[in-house]
Write a structure and sequence with these properties.
The protein has 184 residues and is an alpha+beta fold. Helices cover 28% and strands 35% of the residues. The protein has 6 helices and 8 strands, in the order αββααβββαβαββα. It has an 8-stranded mixed beta sheet with strand order 1-2-3-4-5-6-8-7, with helices on both faces. It is globular and about 45 Å long.
Length: 184
């Protein structure tokens, strides 16, 4: 049984926290996402200038998604989501992750992913997936550092907001890999 309430609530981790997205955060998160307009070229969705409002509305209106605003202390750092939550398969994806430029390469990603993975597995998820654009070497390296297994490439998987036909690298972590001794 998946605890959807647990997957929907605030999370705290090692010098990081995640708050469920609400309209109260819209403008501050929009400003944070606008700090790096070029990065959105390798994202499937445009959360940058001109695309943020439509993209965030699409994410939060999907009943199988949970979108979070990420913080270090009181500073908004970015966002991440549980996507495609499938209670029957006990699977979800962590994606739509963005960090403001000053927080990249600081260890913040590891702390956030640890927090989100622990919450997902504690809520009954057995498999967490990560889908990364083949062009995004930084994210692929981060997945390997996290211990995710590269399972393959989904060729011509989706068309991004720019019209690019994207190859997606699929990574996953199973509960028993992340929490040794845990059963399926």
């Amino acid at each position: 049984m998946i605890d959807l309430v647990r997957l929907s609530g605030p999370m705290t981790g090692d010098h990081c926290r995640a708050e469920p997205f609400t309209e109260d955060y819209r403008q501050a998160l929009k400003a944070a996402c606008a700090e790096d307009g070029e990065i959105w070229e390798i994202y499937a969705n445009n959360f940058g200038e001109g695309g943020f409002d439509d993209s965030i509305t699409r994410y939060v209106s999907n009943p199988n998604n949970r979108t979070f605003v990420l913080f270090e202390g009181d500073a908004i750092v970015g966002m991440s989501s549980y996507l495609g939550i499938d209670p029957n398969r006990q699977v979800l994806e962590i994606g739509g992750t963005y960090y403001r430029p000053p927080f990249r390469g600081t260890g913040f990603n590891r702390r956030v992913k640890d927090m989100m993975l622990r919450c997902a597995f504690d809520a009954g998820i057995r498999r967490v997936e990560f889908r990364v654009d083949r062009r995004n070497g930084r994210s692929q390296a981060a997945m390997r550092k996290l211990g995710a297994v590269r399972e393959g490439v989904l060729r011509a998987d989706r068309i991004t907001w720019t019209g690019h036909v994207r190859d997606t690298v699929l990574f996953a972590i199973l509960r028993e890999e992340y929490l040794p001794g845990a059963s399926q």
